[in-house]
Design brief:
457 residues, alpha/beta, Rossmann fold, 2 domains, twelve-stranded mixed beta sheet, four-stranded mixed beta sheet, 14 helices, globular, binds zinc ion
């Protein structure tokens, strides 16, 4: 780390946060301590935070008061993850329909309001209070810190476009000052043509970037561009991958373009960082002090906790958002819980073994059985022939069940690659008609994310 970086991290950043009235440093210091506690201690703390949240929600949030009254649950009865299961899962649709009744009518109220994108289902309006914002900030800094990130590193964000209207000038000036001080450079990742990627490489060189933080698939496009054109002339740059899944083949590309330190993080807009890889690179530690993360298998009205390694739906309780509580919220993602044994790093935080895409990306086999869309990222990295030729792919399942598999390739896709694809489909999606289509480009969606599996509904 450079002298400016060290100075900034040790002195300027703490003073800057104090000036902005944020308790970041104290909260971060506490999180740095709590991560080493035993799983049992961390779970006991979650129980205490849950009890306080539920008491607040019962007193101040009409939606939760009605729900608990209807089920005959008194607030003091919910004190652990096991108790929590007495409440139903809050789906995104239910949350959207509940609207303002999920907002707290007493202090603390929401100070930040947001809307999640509507790429799947209806957009969801939500908010959080100031205390929750501070938690989110500190949790993110801790997670990113596991791979050595420090505020003040010369950082390039290859990032999705802003999703809100441009803020007023005074706010923009504050954001610009904040970024300049921290030496952060933001580049919108929506356009990824030759000119745009060349410009990003120019920035990496000119600013001698020390860290890349990116939307995963945008970073993959950049890494591929660098590897194919042999543009790398820099030392290792650690990469933090956010917002989209990181597949095994992606990791290899990042390693060639930027070096071996590639970290997967997992979050969503509603609660921010849910889990993050540590330096052991063996699953993602969940943010236990701020969230209860369950992985649940649902079958009709029945539900049960997933077994370690078994894929299920991510269900989150945000322990510190009192402004608009999320209690047992299914955010639409699929994941598997990690090994129960303690991580080699020694932290007591529970782990996710993998984050496997979205429920909405679940395909249907010929007999109607669900097939997880993540299958395709495996197929395209299992097969050497496919990995060698196909740069990008996108699978669309149409209403009639048939598939269109779009391939963006270097030259022709050879017979061996087609044969590998056919064999995989025969095994997992037998009798589902499909056609492949060679395309010149697969552009990202408007939010900057690259959708790999689209199920038409
Ligand atoms: Zn670890």
């Amino acid at each position: 780390m450079s002298l400016y970086g060290r100075l900034f991290h040790a002195a300027v950043f703490p003073a800057w946060e104090r000036l902005r009235g944020r308790p970041t440093m104290a909260q971060l210091a506490e999180l740095e301590r709590s991560q080493w506690r035993s799983p049992a201690e961390l779970e006991a703390e979650q129980g205490r935070a849950l009890e306080a949240l539920v008491a607040h929600a019962y007193r101040n949030v009409p939606y939760y008061r009605q729900l608990m009254d209807a089920r005959g649950i008194a607030p003091g009865e919910l004190r652990s993850v096991a108790d929590l299961r007495r409440l139903p899962i809050l789906t995104r649709d239910v949350a959207a329909r509940a609207g303002e009744s999920r907002r707290s009518t007493g202090e603390p109220r929401c100070v930040v309001d947001k809307l999640t994108g509507g790429s799947t289902g209806a957009p969801l309006r939500f908010g959080f209070d100031l205390g929750s914002e501070h938690w989110r900030h500190a949790i993110k800094l801790r997670g990113w810190g596991w791979s050595g990130y420090r505020v003040g590193d010369r950082t390039l964000y290859f990032w999705g476009p802003a999703t809100t209207l441009p803020p007023p000038f005074s706010k923009r000036a504050k954001v610009a000052a904040d970024r300049a001080l921290k030496r952060e450079r933001y580049i919108d990742c929506t356009e990824r043509g030759e000119a745009e990627l060349s410009a990003v490489v120019g920035e990496i060189r000119a600013r001698r970037i020390e860290r890349l933080i990116c939307y995963t698939q945008a970073g993959v496009d950049l890494a591929r561009f660098i590897v194919e054109r042999r543009l790398r002339d820099w030392d290792d740059v650690p990469v933090l991958c956010c917002a989209e899944a990181l597949h095994p083949a992606d990791r290899r590309l990042f390693e060639q373009a930027f070096g071996p330190e590639v970290v997967e993080t997992y979050g969503c807009r509603e609660v921010m960082m849910i889990a993050c890889e540590c330096e052991a690179h063996d699953g993602l530690h969940t943010s236990m002090e701020n969230l209860i993360v369950e992985v649940v298998v649902r079958d009709g009205d029945e539900e049960r906790p997933a077994r370690p390694g078994e894929q299920g739906e991510v269900v989150i309780t945000d322990l510190h958002n009192y402004g608009m509580p999320f209690i047992r919220y299914a955010n639409g993602d699929l994941a598997a819980l990690g090994p129960e044994a303690r991580c080699r790093c020694g932290r007591g935080l529970a782990r996710l073994a993998s984050v496997d895409g979205r429920v909405a990306e679940t395909l249907r086999a010929a007999d109607g059985a669900p097939v997880c869309g993540i299958l395709f990222s495996r197929i395209f990295s299992w097969s050497d022939a496919l990995a060698r030729t196909v740069q990008k792919w996108q699978v669309v399942q149409h209403l009639d069940g048939s598939l269109t598999i779009k391939l963006m390739a270097r030259g022709d896709v050879d017979a061996e690659a087609h044969a590998d694809l056919r064999r995989s489909l025969e095994r997992y999606l037998k009798d589902v008609p499909y056609r492949t289509e060679l395309v010149g480009e697969i552009p990202p969606a408007k939010n900057g994310k690259q959708r790999t599996v689209i199920v038409e509904r």
